[in-house]
Amino acid sequence: MKLKLFSSLFAVVVIAAFLFSGCENDRIKYEPNSFIKDWLIAGPFPNCEDCSKINYHHDKRCKGFYTDYLKSIGGEKNAVPTEGMKITVEDKNIERTWFKIHSGEDKIHLTDLKPKDMVVAYAFCQVESPKEQKAILAIGSNDGLRVFLNGKEVHESHDFNGRWLQTDNDYVPVMLRKGVNNLMLKIDQGTGDFGFVARFLDYDSVMTKLRKNIDSYKTLKVVAIADTLVATFGTKHKISVLNPNGKVKIELIHEKKGKLGERTVTPGEDAEFLLKKIPKGFLTVRAEFPTPNDGVIVSETRYFKGKLKKHPRVKRLKKDLTIIDENGKPFFPIGTYGAPVEDYQKLKDAGYNFVVAPAKDLDKVNEAGLLAAVPIHGKTAEEYYEQISKYKDHPAVLCWMLYDEPGYNKADLLYIYDIYNAAYKADKVHPSYLVITTPTVYKTFGRSCDVLAVDTYPITNGTIEDVGKNIAIAYDQLENETPIWHCGQMFTWPEQRRPNPHEHRFMTYYALINGARGVLWYTYKGFGQYLPVDDPELWEAQKVLLSELNELAPLFLERGFGKEVPLLRKNESVHAIIKKSPIGTFLMAANISKTDTYQPELNLGKKFDGNVAVYGENRTVVVRNGILIDEFKPLDIHIYKLN
Predict the structure, then answer these.
(1) With contact defined as beta carbons under 8 Å apart, do 270 and 232 qualify?
(2) Which of 3, 69, 378, 617 has its CA 20 to 30 A from that of 128?
(3) For the range 465-473, what are the long-range contacts, defined as Cβ-Cβ under 8 Å and sequence gap of 24 or more?
(4) Do 163 and 494 meet the contact criterion of CB atoms below 8 Å apart?
(5) Which CATH architecture does the domain made up of 563-641 adopt?
(6) Rg of the chain's alpha carbons, rounded to an integer?
(7) Contact present, 535 and 350 (Cβ < 8 Å)
(8) 22-200 matches 323-557 in fold
(9) What CATH topology corresponds to 323-557?
C-alpha cells in the first residue's frame, strides 16, 4: 500500500514538473507599451497540405490552424515549454524543438522557418504581473492568429484573405493573474511574409482612447461586391473591446420602401444582403452596437442602388477613349508609381512619359518633360475641389488620382461619386483616375472616374493570365465607356519575388491585346525597394519594353480592340488579334499557358501571304495561303508586322 501511494505521489510530481517546467524560462516583466522581443519558437507544422499557393485563402481547409500539435507536451492551452524541449507529432512523423529568439526589432519574423509557406508555428513566453489586473494584449500577425493565456483560448483571427503584419492589429482584453502568466500564440501562414508582433497596453488608457476617438472606430463601410451588398461596422478587434461578447445590428432602409432587412454580426464582420432583392434608389444603412457602459453606439451611411450618372467627358478624353495632349494630339500614357524627384530625368530618358507625383513637385515634373498623375487627398468633396482648382492649369497635369483601391478599402460609394463630380467641377479638362484590384467591384466604382486602372498583381500567388482577362472584364462591366489602363506589377511582395523579364513582357502585351489604353507600373522606388538597384536585369528589360511601347504607341491608340484571329485547331491558350494602325497592320498573339509550348495555325485570311517580320525578335516567318504557323513557348508574346 505504501509502495502504491509513493508511486502515485511520484507520478503527480513528475506530471507537475512537466507541465510547470516553465519556471526555467526567462520571465518578462509586465511593462505596458513595451514590445515583447524574447520568445520560445516551435515550428513549422503543416497547415493546408492540399491547398494551392495560387489564389490561396484562409478558411476551414487550413486544418493545421485548428490542429493541436502540442499534445505531446500538454496541449496548446496548457503547454509550458522550455528551450530544447521536443514536440512529437507521431501521425505525421514530425519532431520539432523549442528554441529561443531575441528580436532586434518590434516585429518577430518567422520567415527563416523552413518550409515557410502553408504552415503554422507557435510562440511562447511567460509574463510576470505584479498584481491581478486587466490589460489589453495588442497583437498583430501575418496571417492568422490564435491566442492562449493561462489555459484558455482568448482570441482568434483568421481573415479569409490573410493580412499584413502590423502593430496592434487586434486589441484583446485579458485578465492577468498575479505572478507568472503563460502566453502561447499560434500563427498561421499562407505565403509570403510570416510573423507577429505583441505588447501589452494599459487597459484604462486604451478604453479612454477608444471613447475619445470613437468616430474613427465606429466606421460603417458599405460596398457592392459582385451580387452582394456588404456592410461592415467598426474596426475589427478594436471597438469590440467596449463589449467583448457584443453583437452589432445592421439595418437596410430604403428611401421609399422602408426597412428591407437586418443582420446581426460581430464588429468587423461582413453583413451581407443580396443586391437583387434591393430596389433601386437611395438607401440608409444603420448600425447599432450596444455596450454596457457607453450606451448604444450608432453609425449611419448612405448607398445608391442603380446606375450613377456620369458627368460629360473631359476635354482631354476623346470619345474613342484616347487621351490627348494640350495640342490635341493622341497621347499613349506610359508611367510609374514611386518616382523620386531626383530620378525624373532618368525616367524620361528611359521612355516613360508620366509619373505619379504630388502637386508640390509639378514644376520638377515639367522641367523633366514629363506629365504627372497627381494624387489628391481630402475628407470632403470641397477639399478635393479646392486642391484641384489650385493646380488645374499647371502644364504638367495628366490626371487626378482620386482614391487608392476603393473596393479593397470598402470606400463609401457616394463619397467617391461626390469627389469625382468635385474634380469635374474644378477641372473640365483633365480626367480623374481610380485604380482597382478586384473585378467584383469594377462595376461599383467604375462610373465614378474618367479613367480606370486595373492592378492585377499575380506574381507569385495569382493567375498571370488574369492580367488581360481583368482588362476585358472591366470594359464589359463599364460598357466600353471608360478607358482601362494596365497597372502592372514591378515589385515584390514580402518574402516573394518580382516578375522576371519574360513574365513582365507577357503581362504588358497581354493587357494591350485586351485593349488597355495606357500602362503604368507599381513601383519604381518605395517600401525599401529600388528597381534599378534591386533587379538590374528587369530594369534593362523594362527599358527595351519602353522603347517598343513608344514605337508602337500609334497601334495601341488606334480606335477599337482589333479583330480576333481564328485558329485552324481550337486552342484555349493562344489568343491573337489583328489591328490596323497608321504604322501598319499588326498581328499580336499570346500563349497564356505557363507550362505548355504550342505551334498554332493562325488563319489570317488569303490576302496575307509571304514573309512577315516578328517585331523585336530579328526574324521572319512565312505566311502561306493566309496561314501563319509559329512556335509559342510558355507565356510567349509575338508581334508580327503584316504589311
Answers:
(1) yes
(2) 69
(3) 465/510, 465/592, 467/507, 467/510, 467/511, 468/510, 468/511, 468/513, 468/514, 468/575, 468/590, 468/592, 469/514, 470/439, 471/511, 471/514, 471/515, 471/516, 472/514, 472/515, 473/439, 473/442
(4) no
(5) Sandwich (2.60)
(6) 29
(7) no
(8) no
(9) TIM Barrel (3.20.20)
> What average pLDDT does this structure show over 509-527?
96
Residue ranges of the alpha helices (H) in 340-459?
344-350, 362-367, 381-391, 413-426, 442-445
583-607: pLDDT as tens digits: 999 999 999 999 999 999 999 998 8
The answer to whether residues 420 and 454 touch, using CB atoms and an 8 Å cutoff, is: no
Tell which phi-psi region holds residue 557, choosing left (phi > 0), alpha (psi between -120 and 50) or beta.
alpha
Write down the H helix ranges in 479-633: 501-513, 531-534, 536-557
Whether the CB-CB separation of 56 and 188 falls below 8 Å is answered with: no
| 22-200 CATH fold | Jelly Rolls (2.60.120)
Distance CA 108, CA 102 (A): 9
CATH number of 213-305: 2.60.40.10
Q: What percent of the chain has pLDDT over 90?
A: 86
Higher pLDDT, 1 or 134: 134
Q: Domain residue spans in the chain?
A: 22-200, 213-305, 323-557, 563-641
**Distance of alpha carbon 284 from alpha carbon 262, whole angstroms:** 12
pLDDT tens for 265-279 read: 999 999 999 999 999
Q: Per-residue confidence at 24, pLDDT binned at 50, 70, 90?
A: low
Strands 195-202 and 133-142: antiparallel
Q: Which of 369, 378, 500, 376 is closest to 431 using CA atoms?
A: 376
Q: 260: which 3 cell numbers?
A: 428591407
